[in-house]
Amino acid sequence: MHAMNLLQVFSHSSALAANKKRLHYCPQCGERFIQTTLQQFERQRCERCDFVHYLNPNPGVTVIVKSPDGKVLIGLRAENARYGGKWCLPGGYVEYEESFIATAHREVREETGLALRIEGVVNVVSNHLDDQHHTMVVVLMGQAAGGKQHPGDDLTALQWIDRDLHLGVNYAFEADQRILDCYFAGNIKMLPIDGRAEKRWPAP
Length: 204
Ligand SMILES: [Zn+2]
What we know:
By secondary structure, the protein is an alpha+beta fold. The protein has helices spanning 100-112, 163-166, 174-184, 195-198, and strands at residues 9-11, 34-38, 41-45, 52-53, 58-66, 72-77, 87-88, 91-93, 114-128, 134-147, 155-161, 191-192.
């Protein structure tokens, strides 16, 4: 069992991964970009239209879905998916048209078939997964609240796990493993979600 600290930063690649995200031409006007340094980071700027290609991590959510007896639902990633053949918590990227709360409801529904009753925020993690993917993930916790359980999206199987099963799982993401280490050690605190937030932008 690993340390029970609720760690917030997982780095499996360096800041140099940003090199892979460079663009050569301005997406706004087509001019060739010049390199520039902005707030100490190397970025590209267009001399014709002043467009700057900022680089930011992708925001996402991941959800600890609990059963009434404290088990947690994990999904097996399809062989042809990124990190295929390994297990993960349900979750995904926040779309521009939705709040992170709406994302949690949508992703849990798409990936598990279940409705979700969110209880709170348990963590936020920065995750340099590899040279192509840097995410910033809000970790939520909630209960399954109806629906018909079936794997969907990039998941091919679902399993409810207790602490013993958790120890043998091959996780796709170190963050998921560490978060569940803390959960099964009883070391999770929650920031509650305001009921009004659930009803906004768009309603679940
Ligand atoms: Zn331009």
